[in-house]
Amino acid sequence: MKGLLLVNLGTPDAPRAPEVRRYLREFLSDPLVIDLSPPARWALLQLVILPFRPSRSAEAYRKIWTEGGSPLLVHGRALAEAVAKELAAEYHVELGMRYGSPSVSSALAALRGRGVEELTVLPLYPQLSLSTTQSTVERVKGLLTSEWPGARAKWVPPFYASSGFLDAFAEVARPVLESGRPEQVLFSFHGLPVRQLRRMDPGGKHCLSSPSCCERISEANRGCYRAQAFETARRLAVRLELPPDRYGVSFQSRFGARWIEPFTDVRIRALARSGVGRLAVVCPAFVADCLETLEEIGIRGRESFLAEGGRELTLVPSLNAHPAWVRAVAELARNGGEPLQ
Q1: What kind of architecture, by CATH, is found in domain 2-159+322-339?
Q2: What is the rounded distance in angstroms from the CA atom of residue 294 to the CA atom of residue 91?
Q3: Torsion on CA atoms 165, 171, 173, 179, rounded to nearest 10
Q4: Cα–Cα distance measured from residue 5 to residue 147, given in angstroms and rounded to the nearest whole number
Q5: Nearest to 30 by CA among 117, 100, 111
Q6: What letter does residue 293 receive in the DSSP assignment?
Q7: What residues does each domain of the chain span?
């Protein structure tokens, strides 16, 4: 029997400061997330982040928490259940979180216990980055070595240009844009520190070398998160029949100044000040609605847009467990992947 492991980033167990602190400690202790020297990472985490951020983040989580728990977990479970039905005769399906619960370890144990002989790992991050994709792949490889030696495993690379992913996002976004008739559409992706982006440049000469370095995918930037984000936006814009002057690309969730630009929060305010009355925001770095979409964009982003004179900001829902996305995930699993070595 085959097994499919879906992996997303993770979420606290409850919208309270102790649970958020525990989650942030695990998340931000990962050297691929905060890629500083161990002493510098320890100081940033223990002296700057953990004393203050858990209570603020817990307050933000409370604004979006549901009866079923964190939206990311609720949507993740719904997706896993729907994909399991779609692949019923072919795969056992489990959901694991890179940080928090259900853990990747528990998901692998469940698959092994069900007699899985061939494993496919699908990190639910459309674009490639060290802090999401690579961290997840390394974690799974380590667990397979220690807990499931000899497992036949492969993983699905980033699917930023996959037709199934793009078609599903367009299917979700199209009716929202048609009903809201926004003057501008902003494709907002999660941000990254510039240093992490440059680590993905094998030659060290292309990344951010010019304003046009991400205008198209080439051999030089094939593994670049920012270039992949722009490519996702371009392909979605074509599907949604958006001309170049009606959409833009930006990056959210920055923590510090040296993060990739343009910044979403700055762009939202600037669009309102420029006279845009109706703005729609699509977040194609997230396949499930979560804190970054629902609170950062849907609440704080909307407040900023209205405060600067805008009339309406519409957050386009993420893929969650939309039937088109369920079919796309099943197809990604069936199409194979690369050996997990």
Answers
A1: 3-Layer(aba) Sandwich (3.40)
A2: 32
A3: 180
A4: 15
A5: 100
A6: I
A7: 2-159+322-339, 163-315
> Which DSSP symbol is given to 316?
P
Token pair listed for 318: 């993420």
The DSSP 8-state label assigned to residue 299 in this structure reads I
Burial-class residue 154 by CB neighbours within 10 Å (0-12, 13-18, 19+): middle
What single DSSP character describes residue 246? G
Fold of 163-315: Rossmann fold (3.40.50)
| pLDDT tens sequence for the chain (341 residues) | 899 999 999 999 999 999 999 999 999 999 999 999 999 999 999 999 999 999 999 999 999 999 999 999 999 999 999 999 999 989 999 999 999 999 999 999 999 999 999 999 999 999 999 999 999 999 999 999 999 998 999 999 999 999 999 999 999 999 999 999 999 999 999 999 998 888 887 776 778 878 888 888 988 888 999 999 999 999 999 999 999 999 999 999 998 769 999 999 999 999 999 999 999 999 999 999 999 999 999 999 999 999 999 999 999 999 999 999 999 999 999 997 888 86
Rg over CA atoms, the chain: 20
Domains 2-159+322-339 and 163-315 share a fold: yes
Q: Name the residue among 213, 219, 222, 221 with its Cα closest to residue 157.
A: 222
Residue 48 DSSP symbol: I
